[in-house]
Write a structure and sequence with these properties.
By secondary structure, the protein is α/β, with parallel strands linked by helices. Helices cover 32% and strands 19% of the residues. It has a single domain, classed as Glutaredoxin (3-Layer(aba) Sandwich).
Length: 187
């Protein structure tokens, strides 16, 4: 809790929110982050693929619930063009994050998050937060907090179905905050 409070306080003071509300049809901000294996990864590297971009942390209970779902979705839809990208928002060393991801059986790239990427994605205040990005790099949905597994998969299918430049579909997301107290937001 202290770590999340420090993170939120620093993020709010340094960076105003830039990507909030209904993001459907908006181009996803490109970024370059370091993966757990030390490679530099850009979101634009995955243009032409559907992307489930998930912000999470090792201390986040709801994140631990949905991570096995993402592993399954990567297995089921990877050949159809899905890429799950995890963005770890921990204030801990990469080896600890890597061990956690290994223990969870993560089969998708995990990137080390920064305050800058959090800012670009609307000052990610709640974990988990997921963005569903179509093959053209535009948002088809956003989920804040632990969503129902069926809703996650429906958003993935929307991202995969978008094959035409400028195509975007509607979607909703229910939210939970970083804390253990429920809070719901529909976007």
């Amino acid at each position: 809790m202290v770590a999340s409070g420090k993170y939120l306080d620093r993020a709010r003071k340094l960076h105003p929110s830039t990507l909030v509300g209904d993001v459907r049809g908006v181009a996803a901000p490109d970024f370059e982050l370091t993966s757990l294996d030390g490679k530099r990864v850009k979101l634009s590297d995955y243009r032409g693929k559907a992307v489930l971009l998930n912000f999470w942390a090792t201390w986040c209970g709801p994140c631990k619930v949905e991570m096995p779902w993402f592993v399954d979705l990567q297995k089921r839809y990877g050949n159809d063009g899905l890429v799950v990208l995890g963005v770890a928002m921990d204030d801990t060393e990469a080896p600890k994050i890597a061990q956690f991801a290994s223990d969870m059986g993560v089969n998708y790239p995990v990137l080390l998050g920064t305050d800058k990427v959090s800012e670009e994605y609307g000052n990610v205040e709640f974990l988990p937060t997921s963005f569903y990005i179509d093959r053209d790099g535009k948002f088809v949905g956003k989920g804040v907090g632990l969503l129902d597994r069926k809703e996650v998969e429906a958003n993935v299918q929307k991202a995969l179905a978008s094959r035409v430049i400028g195509a975007a579909t509607s979607g909703t997301a229910t939210a939970l905050p970083r804390t253990s107290q429920p809070h719901t937001t529909v976007q």
